[in-house]
Amino acid sequence: xxxxxxxxxxxxxxxxxxxxxxxxxxxxxxxxxxxxxxxxxxxxxxxxxxxxxxxxxxxxxxxxxxxxxxxxxxxxxxxxxxxxxxxxxxxxxxxxxxxxxxxxxxxxxxxxxxxxxxxxxxxxxxxxxxxxxxxxxxxxxxxxxxxxxxxxxxxxxxxxxxxxxxxxxxxxxxxxxxxxxxxxxxxxxxxxxxxxxxxxxxxxxxxxxxxxxxxxxxxxxxxxxxxxxxxxxxxxxxxxxxxxxxxxxxxxxxxxxxxxxxxxxxxxx
Length: 269
Hints:
Layout: H1 9-15, H2 18-26, H3 34-51, E1 57-63, E2 79-86, H4 89-99, H5 109-119, H6 125-135, E3 136-141, E4 158-164, H7 167-170, H8 174-185, E5 188-199, E6 204-207, E7 210-213, H9 219-228, E8 231-239, E9 253-260
Parallel strand pairs: 1-2, 1-4, 2-3, 4-5
Antiparallel strand pairs: 5-9, 6-7, 8-9
Helix pairs in contact: 3-5, 5-6, 8-9
């Protein structure tokens, strides 16, 4: 990707429209769209990870939450507190709108009902929404390219870091990507878990007619970066479904669970 193709932070602040993004990628309707299939697959994987009882603890930090909450629906059963983060102010505002049940907030109930069905009780969906709202204790600004991604906010190290569809968009090249994973590792306890979801081999994605860059990554490149950031990889699944061709040019999505080594090299970055 050339410098001129890379979507800068400023471009995100001025051009990323959370409402259009939610509408294009997360309208969980009855039509079996590519976007719906990816979302359902990711929700099933997250349910399996968090219901296993292995990935749990006091604090989960979600990196690059965006305006979405789907990725936290199973996690909120396994952690006492959740910290949501994003670089883009309008995403944080959109997220807060849902958390505060404000007028015009996106309706996540179809996705919530789907997860409740996986958990065995579709009728509990309103309680789950409430529980998630209670668990999200902070909504913070985050920049994965900084050595302190959460800036001056002091947080205890998390038991789990979750990041979905963030790093490939935030990093202009592989060295930046490697460094971002090391920066994030500083937020995680040794022995803590990384749950990592992103598109493979994607150069861009569209929101309406607005184009945003993505770092095109192979499975090998992702594995190499995660291992060099000080993790052992416990699961790596490639979800072969791609987004609609008018929305992105990816070849599948990966789902990775890693565990931070106790003597993590990421700490010396």
